[in-house]
Predict the 3D structure of the following.
Amino acid sequence: MRYLLMVSHGTLAPGLHSVLKMLSGSCDGVLSCSMEDGMGADDFVCRLEGTIAPITSADEVLVLGDIIGGSPLTNTLDTLARHGLLAKAVAFGGMNLPMALTALMGLQTGRTRRPAGGDALGGPGCHPGGRPRRHRGRRG
């Protein structure tokens, strides 16, 4: 199965999850977890463990985090790695409704696989090592 896992500070992830349900009617495979005000990293990880419980090593995970380098996203990636799930995960920092809706449609159509030489959504943005490609156009 393919999962969309949204993680954030505050209530952004659960809020987007709610809107996705409203717009699409079905959110099978969509999971969300948030680090609420006053919650420590250990509490977030405990909550996240329960959220990701249905994910197995045969599944694929598309992770959307609110901020690159933020506690929710870094702790999520660490937790997925501890569970042996990181190899089948693709993560993006920065999250908004159009991005989440596009990811959900990708789950439903099967268009979330990482093609050779492209980024997770099929574009030419990154090569398999994850380093950005350099544009070799004219200067000037």
